[in-house]
Amino acid sequence: MGDNRVQGVHVIKHPLVQHKLTLMRQKSCSTMSFRQLLNEIGMLLCYEVTRDLPLEMLEIETPITRMQAPSISGKKLVFAPILRAGTGFLDGMLELVPSARVAHIGLYRDPATLKAVEYYFKAPLDIAERLTILMDPMLATANSAIAALDLLKAKGAQEIRFVCLLAAPEGVAALTAAHPDIEIWTAAIDSHLNSHGYIVPGLGDAGDRMYGTK
Ligand code: PRP
Ligand code: URA
Predict the structure, then answer these.
(1) Which domain holds residue 132?
(2) pLDDT at 136 over 80
């Protein structure tokens, strides 16, 4: 199943993704189910964001004969979750691409200013030679994603894709204006941001729902 392009964004309409997202949006969804569903959607979004990775033909030998068989060529991957909620995607993605490297990006959103505050950053030294998948379930004002992209680019990342679960139109516009080279994959673009910078209808605070904090 392909994706729909809305505002230049890849919106993943796959029924499994949409069904799991609906379960997560409901306030009755438990912490355990929320985490599990995010992990499962991470796998499905990983499948979509890697859909066009280049292949090369390798000469191999089956038990029957020799053949030319496709294998992923070129750049390997870096997965870059924004802490905390981005880690909810990480295990699912690593199950599909176990050899990926991981860059951890510690940012939190100041509740008064909605600006991103950095508290941790560690990325592989060879990030320039790898395709980087930046991940965070929520793209609201985009302050966090923009700060993360600034950090990754300053470290040398050349090719970066952003994967989220829910985006606000305001966040898509801000991210595209600040980093026009970055493509976005998401399961939905919601209506708008409320006066506290939360996505409407959204799913609430992703980090709190994942970890049972408040
Ligand atoms: C949430 C979310 C994003 C950010 C999105 O994190 O996981 O990182 O908000 O909002 P923005 O687009 O307006 O920047 P939060 O700051 O709540 O930190 P947490 O995951 O540690 O709870
Ligand atoms: N961060 C979240 O976790 N949820 C929102 O709706 C906005 C920012």
Answers:
(1) 3-211
(2) yes
Please identify, by atom number, the ligand 1 atom nearest to the C-alpha of residue 144.
14
Task: Tell me, yes or no, if the pTM score tops 0.90.
Answer: yes
Domain holding 101: CATH number? 3.40.50.2020
Which ligand minimizes its atom distance to the CA of 207? 1
Ligand 2, residues 203, 209, 211: which to mutate, most atoms within 8 A of Cβ?
A: 203
Total structural domains within the chain = 1
Q: Which of 110, 113, 126, 181 is catalytic?
A: 113
Chain mean pLDDT for the chain: 96
Residue 211 pLDDT greater than 80, yes or no: yes
| Residue whose structure tokens are 């959607």 | 41
Establish whether the linkage from the previous residue to 84 is cis, with ω within 30° of 0. Answer: yes
